[in-house]
Every structure is written in C-alpha cells, then in structure tokens.
UniProtKB/TrEMBL annotation:
Organism listed in the record: Aquirufa avitistagni
Subunit structure: Homodimer.
Binding site for substrate: 11, 62, 72-73, 168, 186-187, 197-198
Site features described as Could be important to modulate the pK values of the two catalytic cysteine residues, chain residue numbers: 135, 186
A Pfam family annotated for this UniProt entry: DAP_epimerase
Name of the featured protein: Diaminopimelate epimerase
Length: 255
C-alpha cells in the first residue's frame, strides 16, 4: 500500500489515496500504522475518497484507530495533498464528517473554512465549544510550564464531558492583544500534539468572547504559527471562520 506523510504545524498525518475505495484496515491496523515505534508514526490517518458534487471526501482516523470528528490541520494537509496530486488548483471544495468545507490554496499556506460556531458554554473557569470537534479552552498563566498531558487527560475523562465521548483540551495564554499561545491535549491521540487546528480555532473564538481579541488572531503552537480569521461574535454566532497556516509533504512510502 502506497502512503504519503504530511504535517501542518507539527500535527502529522498518514494520507492514503483511496479514490478506488479499496481501503480495508481495521482500528488495530490503523493504530499500528500511527504508532511512533511500531509503525510510520502519526497523530492520525486520512483517506481521500471520491464524492459526487465535491472535489473529494475527507475520512479521518485518530492515532488510536477510531474515526475522529473534524480535524482542522488534517483538512489543511489533505487539501495540500489534493493540490499536489492535481485534483485541485487554487481552491478546494470537499466534504468531511462535519459537512462541506472550502479552502484557498497558496504556495506557503492553506486557508480552510471551518463550520460556523453558534455558541460557547462556560463550565466553572473553563469554556467549551464545538468547532467540528469538541474543545475545552482553559486559560493559564504560563502555558509553557503547564502539565498538558496530565491535566488535559483529567479534564478529557471528567464526568462533565463523558456524554459527548470526552473532549479535546486546550490551554491558552494571551501573549499580546493579537496573539495566543495554545497547547492541546488531543482525544484519540491521548497525548499532547504539536498543534490542533479545531483546538486553536476554539481558543481564538473563546478569546474573542472573553478577552476582547479581534480577528485575525495569531496563534503560536509547539509546531509553528497559525492564524484564525472570523466574522461575528458569541451573541450572534461566528461565521466565515478560516484556519490559516502551512501544510507540507514530508515523505512518501510503501507498506
Ligand atoms: N488535530 C485535529 C483535531 C482532531 C480531533 C480529534 N482528536 C477528535 O476529537 O476526534 C485538528 O487539527 O483539528
């Protein structure tokens, strides 16, 4: 089986061209491929499939082999892959688990439109929203010293979020009026990743609602820089949300 490895701000993915729709691996086999010691190593695995009326369909599996909800960095990487394969040129229109998406393609960046976000909930000092995947946003003083893995896991498995199969957890620090530093514990990877697209999108929208930050918001992650652009506000809802940043081919291989 031929595979491609891509990364977007250090969130890394195995991509398989499944336009022939012959992919058959089960949860255990996908988890094995994503394993960093026994496999290729990745935060997730994606399939690019054909879909009538769209340029392609995005199918996304987490590193544990389970099918995930929307993945923003994965979406950006799959758009870059589609461009590299000649499936799209400067624009992409695809369908993912949370519905249709458009993306604009340039040499160094992919700007991916995310689903509209109607509301943000507050749970004690934390905020919760769904940007295609469920996300908690917690503000901390010095995010570089936060124990993301252990505190993230405690929130992810806490009673409050069991109902929606757990949640991803973002720790955010406002660095200046336009910039956030965000670190994310990812459900399905069950560890911190270098960056999470739906997560930084959630952190940006929550920061508009609670910290008065306006669009575009620059985001620093362990894997690099992203930007989130949007219209609207938490009262009327957010629309025209774009996640913008680099997405790159790393290598190609054969299993
Ligand atoms: N890394 C992804 C999010 C994956 C969400 C997944 N962990 C889940 O909750 O199913 C991103 O860039 O948006």
């Amino acid at each position: 089986m031929h595979f491609y490895k891509y990364q977007g701000t250090g969130n890394d993915f195995i991509i398989i061209d499944d336009r022939s729709q012959t992919f058959q691996l089960d949860t255990t086999a996908i988890a094995q491929l994503c394993h960093r010691r026994f496999g290729i190593g990745a935060d997730g695995l994606m399939l690019l499939q054909n879909e009538t009326g769209y340029d392609f369909r995005m199918v996304y599996f987490n590193a544990d082999g389970t099918e995930g909800t929307m993945c923003g960095n994965g979406g950006r990487c799959l758009v870059r892959f589609a461009a590299d394969q000649g499936i799209v040129t400067d624009k992409a229109h695809f369908i993912a688990i949370d519905g249709p998406h458009v993306a604009q393609i340039s040499t160094d960046k992919i700007a991916l439109q995310m689903q509209d976000v109607a509301n943000i909930a507050q749970h004690d000092d934390d905020y919760f929203t769904n940007t295609g995947s469920p996300h908690v946003v917690r503000y901390v003083q010095q995010v570089q010293f936060t124990d993301v893995k252990n505190i993230g896991a405690a929130i992810r498995y806490s009673e409050a979020y069991l109902g929606q199969n757990g949640t991803n957890v973002n720790f955010a620090e406002k660095l200046d009026p336009q910039t956030l530093f965000v670190r994310t514990y990812e459900r399905g990877v069950e560890d911190e990743t270098y960056s999470c697209g739906t997560g930084v999108t959630a952190a940006a929208l929550v920061s508009n609602a609670t910290k008065g930050m306006s669009s575009p918001i620059q985001i620093k992650t362990l894997g690099g820089e992203l930007a989130v652009q949007f219209e609207g506000n938490s009262t009327d809802g957010f629309t025209q949300i774009f996640l913008i940043g680099p997405a790159k081919h790393v290598f190609t291989g054969e299993i």
